[in-house]
Design a protein that fits this description.
The protein is about 65% helix and about 5% strand. It is mainly α. The protein folds into 2 domains: about 375 residues, Orthogonal Bundle (Ammonium transporter fold); about 25 residues, no CATH class. The protein has a 3-stranded antiparallel beta sheet with strand order 3-4-5, with no helix packed on it.
């Protein structure tokens, strides 16, 4: 018996050790996964790129005397919203708090370190979410270009990010009341796009139209800028949507695929609509369609199947396309159609998430087409809540900012252009029959192009 004792002990160890390790692991702190961390580092960089991409998208659509001001409205969000997110915004969005607002437990990033948040470092999760707050604020600028004082804009988006964005982010992603109700918003249809679209609508109303609008049309000065911006936005949006899985897993792959297919569907339908209406599909229309498709699939990206994404994208083209046509016949000067692209596109996407969601894919909930019609109602409540809250508070904030700083540039500044009057720079000058791209506030370098 003695000679079999080592064999018996080894057998018992082999059988029992995995069970012991599993029992210990079940009580252990979450472990950081290297693959998930690598993917989320990449996704964070991709989403950060989207704000400069938005600057190019918007910048190409405006007149040449306002291009730097328009682009700066996106770039400045990197600074002020980034700082405020670290100081307070993240805590209000993702602190435990109540159903309505997070607490101050993460104020100044206290308690946000290299410990695991899911399977990635907490600091990385915070940084990823920061990029969403930044671009959401920047989106608003497209509705008020050419007429809002830069100082007033910076003050408004700074307050807005804390008072409007962070609470809605908490409602949906931070364990708030909409999350508990079961609202589905994979990457920001309600939190980002409906929210920003409503704020843009209110800002356009409060500021009023540009002087001379709509009698004096403003044509895009650089459509290739807009196409470049749209392409970079699509590229970055893979991090926006697929990264919202917060892991390198099957849901990330699903969101990646739907982010590829939905804008393709939107672009195809938009091109057909353009061809039917004007016989000439346009480059600006194509760039707009890509953004509308990306916006629409954002809330649904990790919840729906590939073919559903194609259908969702195709459907989303129709209300946004005709929304643009209707807006053009009104006095609402939503300069770059933020409402039609982001407000309408985000609303359509959020509602269709409640139609096409499949629990078999995401393990979360089914939509109406898969036996759960109640999900559509929940989605509608989430959209309505965002509209009412963002609309009301955006109006109040604009009025308060107007008491401190004049919201509008004066008539002379608008006529001259906000590049020169707000920034002391010009994007383009004409010297001896040659158009030059200049930056008088920078190194003074010039890129010359033949002047027509």
């Amino acid at each position: 018996m003695g000679r079999f004792r080592p064999v018996l002990i080894a057998t018992l160890v082999a059988v029992c050790l995995p069970a012991l390790l599993f029992a210990q692991g079940s009580n252990a702190a979450p472990a950081i996964n290297q693959a998930d961390t690598a993917w989320m580092l990449t996704s964070t960089a991709l989403v950060l790129l989207m704000t400069p991409a938005l600057a190019f998208f918007y910048g190409g659509l405006v007149g040449s005397k306002n291009v730097l001001n328009t682009m700066m409205m996106s770039f400045i969000a990197l600074a002020f919203i980034g700082v405020l997110w670290a100081v307070l915004g993240y805590s209000l969005a993702f602190g435990t708090g109540s159903d309505w607002l997070g607490d101050t437990s993460f104020l100044f990033l206290q308690g946000v370190g290299l410990d695991a948040k899911g399977t990635i470092p907490h600091l990385l999760f915070m940084s990823y979410q920061a990029t969403f707050a930044i671009i959401t604020a920047a989106l608003i600028s497209g509705a008020i270009i050419g007429r809002m004082r830069f100082s007033a804009y910076v003050l408004f988006i700074s307050l807005w990010s804390i008072i409007v964005y962070s609470p809605i982010a908490h409602w949906v992603w931070g364990g708030g009341w909409l999350s508990k109700m079961g609202a589905l918003d994979f990457a920001g249809g309600t939190v980002v796009h409906v929210n920003a679209g409503v704020a843009a609508f209110v800002a356009a109303l409060v500021l009023g139209p540009r002087r001379g609008y709509p009698k004096v049309p403003t044509l895009p000065h650089n459509v290739p800028f807009t196409l470049l911006g749209a392409g970079l936005l699509w590229f970055g949006w893979f991090g926006f949507n697929s990264g919202s899985a917060l892991a390198a897993n099957g849901i990330a792959a699903l969101a990646f695929t739907t982010t590829l297919l939905a804008p393709a569907g939107t672009l195809a339908v938009w091109t057909l609509l353009d061809a039917a209406r004007t016989k000439r599909p346009t480059a600006v229309g194509a760039a707009t369609a890509i953004v509308v498709g990306l916006v629409a699939v954002t809330p649904a990206a990790g919840y729906i199947g590939p073919m559903s994404a194609l259908i969702l994208g195709g459907i989303a083209a129709i209300p946004s396309y005709y929304g643009l046509q209707i807006r053009a016949r009104t006095t609402l000067d939503d300069s770059l159609d933020v409402v039609a692209a982001h407000g309408v596109g985000g609303t359509v996407g959020a509602l269709l998430t409640g139609v096409f969601a499949q629990k078999a894919l995401n393990g979360v909930a089914d939509g109406m087409l898969f036996g759960n019609p109640g999900q559509l109602g929940i989605q509608a409540i989430a959209v309505l809540a965002a509209i009412v809250y963002s609309g009301t508070l955006s109006f109040v904030l604009l009025k308060l900012v107007g008491l401190v700083v004049p919201l509008r540039a004066d008539a002379r500044d608008e006529s001259t252009g906000l590049d020169e009057t707000q920034h002391g720079e010009e994007a383009y000058g004409v010297l001896g029959g040659v158009t030059t791209m200049t930056g008088t506030g920078g190194s003074g370098g010039e890129m010359a192009h033949a002047h027509p």
